[in-house]
Predict the 3D structure of the following.
Amino acid sequence: MQKKNPILKKLALLLSWLPFAAAVHADVLTVGQPAPQFQLKVQDGSDFNLAARKDIGWTVLYFYPKAGTPGCTKQACAFRDAIQVIRNNNAEVYGVSTDEVQKLLEFHQEHKLTFNLLSDPDAKVTDA
């Protein structure tokens, strides 16, 4: 019996919630549909502009309520562990939360995350 790749299993688990997320908002984006443009701060204080990602590859935005909580930590570490598979498929991951930049930097360093976290303190992107 062939052993399944644990990273692929984690990635599949992370993405399995997508069909259910569509029921939350009436104006849901579909795969391939352009997202509204926005700019947020990265954990290192630099700017992230979604428009700059156009034509580079897939952009995976995942939203989480608070850095450092058990569920959010597990989710972030699963993306970290699957990052090479994701990047091999021409995609980049960005985590978005309402935490301030400093909190995201601490969370990023503590868990040795290999993708950027974006700060949305006013929840303008999160609630869009």
User: Anything to note?
Assistant: The domain at 37-128 is CATH 3.40.30.10 (Glutaredoxin).
